[in-house]
Specification:
mainly alpha
Length: about 55
């Protein structure tokens, strides 16, 4: 999950540098969503002591 976040973040940065603001905004939004899902799953796995996902 964290891998996808990093990939979308890199795509957003490259798109922003090239001037594709729509693609950059969408990629940054997807990266945020993936990151928050990763954080929730990480906290759940810490609390329960089990591997989630």
């Amino acid at each position: 999950m964290l891998h996808y976040t990093i990939v979308f973040l890199v795509v957003a940065i490259i798109a922003a540098i090239l001037g594709f603001s729509g693609i950059a905004g969408a990629s940054a939004g997807i990266a945020k969503i993936c990151f928050f899902i990763f954080l929730v799953l990480f906290v759940v796995s810490l609390v329960t002591g089990k591997k989630v996902g």
